[in-house]
Structures are given as C-alpha cells and as structure tokens.
C-alpha cells in the first residue's frame, strides 16, 4: 500500500490525506502515466530534454485552478522552446479539452490523471478523500531532476507563481 501522509494539507481548513511520498529538491522526478486524450497516454519520458514546469490542480472547473492555469499559460509565452508547461488534474480529458478551448489556453499541455492516479501517487499529491490531485508545483530540469517543489498546505490557496517561474528561468 502506498504511503499516506495524514494532516499533510487541508481543504477549507479540514485535514486531508495525501497518498505518496513528499518529494524534495534534488530528487529524481518519478515517472508517471497520464492521459493526453481518450486514447493516448503520456509519461515523463515524452518530455525528455525539456525543462518541465508541472502545475498540478484539483480541477480546472474551479476558480483557483482556472486562474493558476491561465497564469502559467501567460508565463509560458516568455519561457522559450526549451520549456514545457504541463497542467495535471484528475479531470477527464474531455473536460480538459473543453475548458482549454473555452479559456483560450494554447501554451499549456493539459494531462489527465483520472485513470490510475499515477502522477498523484508518484508525486505525493493524490488526495485520498476526493480522488483528486492536490495543488502543487514541480520544476524538473532537462535531466529529470526536481529543482523546485511547492506543496500547498491549503487546497484553496494560490501557489507562488513568481517563485515557480524564477525556478524555471534559473535553468535557462
């Protein structure tokens, strides 16, 4: 059974349990298997050689997740071709595609963790009580080493956008 971290975070002040390890700067980024769409899967290896800003959100259909994804879509424009911004949630691929089209999101790649919660379990962000991924940010260098981690303590709060973008820019 996967490691459970009780009281690792809260949702509107109520404790939630996160499944998986708490990754640290310097750790090798774990592999994962998520859905690009209904038929195609993606893994960490699909983004080999790129700097990866991984923005994790519980659901794109909520206010903070919407704002977080829009912000990183804007930031992506200035990061160059060596950087890929991935947004991972447990939303179905259909919902992600619909949301991106409605929001005009064109620089962020959305990936769905809905099938196996593979990303959530590997990165320690799988919320046991809701079967969603906890809001968090990971910056992974070209060699798949984690160089920045932000696990939010409260699900409804925004991440530190400036620190995440600065961590990416340090790798350029």
Automatic annotation (TrEMBL):
Transmembrane segments: none
Substrates-to-products reaction catalysed: a hydroperoxide + [thioredoxin]-dithiol = an alcohol + [thioredoxin]-disulfide + H2O
Residue span, Thioredoxin domain: 23-172
Family annotation (InterPro entries): Redoxin, Thioredoxin-like_sf, Thioredoxin_domain, TPX, Tpx_CS, Tpx_Peroxidase_subfamily
Signal peptide, first to last residue: none
Record-linked Pfam families: Redoxin
Active-site annotation: 65
Gene Ontology molecular functions: thioredoxin peroxidase activity
Gene3D superfamilies documented for this protein: Glutaredoxin
Family, per entry: Belongs to the peroxiredoxin family. Tpx subfamily.
Subunit structure: Homodimer.
Protein name: Thiol peroxidase
Originating species: Paenibacillus rhizosphaerae
């Amino acid at each position: 059974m996967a490691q459970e971290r009780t009281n690792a975070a809260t949702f509107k002040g109520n404790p939630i349990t996160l499944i998986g390890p708490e990754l640290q700067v310097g750790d090798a980024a774990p592999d994962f298997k998520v859905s690009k769409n209904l038929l195609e899967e993606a893994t960490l290896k699909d983004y080999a050689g790129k700097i990866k800003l991984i923005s994790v959100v519980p659901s794109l259909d909520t206010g903070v997740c919407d704002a977080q994804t829009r912000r990183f879509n804007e930031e992506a424009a200035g990061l160059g071709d060596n950087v890929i911004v991935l947004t991972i949630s447990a939303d179905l691929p259909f919902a992600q595609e619909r949301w991106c089209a409605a929001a005009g999101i064109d620089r962020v790649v959305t990936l769905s963790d809905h099938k196996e919660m593979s990303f959530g379990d590997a990165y320690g962000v799988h919320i046991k009580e809701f079967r969603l991924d906890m809001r968090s940010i990971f910056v992974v260098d070209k060699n798949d080493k984690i160089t920045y981690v932000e696990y939010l303590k409260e699900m409804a709060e925004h991440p530190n956008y400036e620190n995440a973008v600065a961590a990416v820019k340090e790798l350029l």
